[in-house]
Fold this sequence. Notes:
CATH superfamily of the largest domain: Periplasmic binding protein-like II
Oligomer: single chain
Radius of gyration: 35 Å
Helix content: 40-55%
Amino acid sequence: MLTLPAHAQTPAEPIVLGVHSHxxxxxxxxxxxxxxxxxxxxxxLGKRMxxxxxxRRHNLQTxxxxxxxxxxxxxxxxxxxxxxxAHPQSDPIFTTFAKAYSLPSQPYITDWAQLAGMRxxxxxxxxxxxxxxxxxWAFDIVPVDLYETGFQMLQGGQVDLVIAEQYVxxxxxxRYDKVHSASDPLIYGSFTYVSYRGNQALxxxxxxxxxxxxISGEYDRLLNQWLGVGREKVDLEATQNRYTQAAFAVAILxxxxxxxxxxxxxxxxxxxxxxxxxxxxxxxxxxxxxxxxRQFQSVLDGLPHGIVLYEADRTxxxxxxKANAFLSIKQQLTNDQGPLDLDRRMGxxxxxxxxxxxxxxxxxxxxxxxxxxxxxxxxxxxxGVEITEQVLLRQENEKASRLASLGELSAGVAHEINNxxxxxxxxxALLSDALEDLAPAWQAYEQEDPFxxxxxxxxxxxxxxxxxxxxSIGDSARRISTIVSDLKRYAQPDQDQPTQxxxxxxxxxxxxxxxxxxxxAFEVTTELCPALPAxxxxxxxxxxxxxxxxxxxxxxxxxxxxxxxxxxxxxxxxPYLEVADNGHGMSDAVRERxxxxxxxxxxxxxxxxxxxxxxxxxxxxxxAQMTIDSAPGQGTRIRIHFAQEALA
Length: 648
């Protein structure tokens, strides 16, 4: 293999990108890593330009100062569409706008003239500040360091309005219940990459690659990845019918009870002269009524819903045991419309004599369905049931549907990639043969013309560079072909993957390739047994298990000095596969429940609790045994032993 001179191997200087906001999906920090549309777009642009991208996070004013001092190369900022910044900036990335936000007492703003005499909070260095700078306005500008500071001052009465960018304001509004939108868009702008004066060459290079991404469709796919939306499908009508039937059943039982009471009273009046007979009949009636009451209460307690009957004055008449589950936390229940006001809802149901149903969540992120149904005599039945499991099942069903579609799409894309990859490999082979045949020709021509150059380089140097490029292209194309083959095989459904002889070492290699993005920030080592016997299994299923274990390990690893080790070996004639990490580990209680469906310690981060449950099912189908050794702060080691009947 040819070796390049030292100066030809020096890597390009990294691009330092400054980010300042916390506005998903554009840019924010998650698990200690900066991510978002702007960050990923810059990383792809840097890869196209052959330069590493480093992310630095500060507030906007600090980043502007560092930009002027040339301590950073780029800053993600919004610029007004008709008033560009003094710094060089790239083509627009994504459009946005700013509008006014005020308290409910303020009128709706339709014209700039309405702002005369007001105190307007404006974030320093923002595109609103750039738009307003250098002109005389009839209102007082109050500079603030953050939009959130402006919202705090507005709610505290220190300013009259805040002019803020819509994406940040939309994230802040739920925290400030008194602040609302008070105008149509006032200023239009767009996200751009901004550099320091004199660095136009970098902006030109970014624009060139950004335009290529837009032409190729890569830019549109990136926008769809970060800004795409989905839709839930909930059968509300069927659910309402079920609960309406339950309400009718409760009403019928109540009417039966009242009928029994009426008949008892009539019997007592008819026998008022026969005291002894009346007493015996009364005791008998009371005994039957008590039994009926106990049976009625037993029926109520057996229902899956908490049920409570209220009078119009909110007096509680009766309820079953399960009612306490949601009544004890009703002050915590909230949804997008705000907290649950049960008294107001019951008043509306009694007034309009129409049922009501709402979906709420408590502080433990459990989902509840609350219903109110009107009865006769201005009474209302309140029913509440926890539906967390149903919601999770629905979400997982939709997620599985999306993943299935993604698998089919991935297989199709992989197939399409194979064709150009094959052409590249054929062309590289032709190029290699051509370079070998041209060697005598360029040497002879160089002797005739000592000043002859190829692509601005001496012939020897140019041929060396061409040979190196040919080898690099060939290696890259072969790597692409390997990854595509792994992806196509992994995307195949289970029914297309019969059991076969599977090499666990090959499973490790494939899984590491497919999870490169997850473990690239950590130290990964492998210790593979060269004489490992093959097992009889489904290739895709084994890869799915190992990929899930690798991803779980990466989520548990510390950001600094995280280590992951994969080992294969044989004990007592049985092959095993082991995944070990130095992450935060698990307690005994967590370890005992780790394979239960829907059990997760990462519910707030989007965990579903199904990954390890699926792994356990797959291993049980393959007669494999999984042992977990873990303790808090000491990492986790998971070993999978394959039974003798699994050996190929």
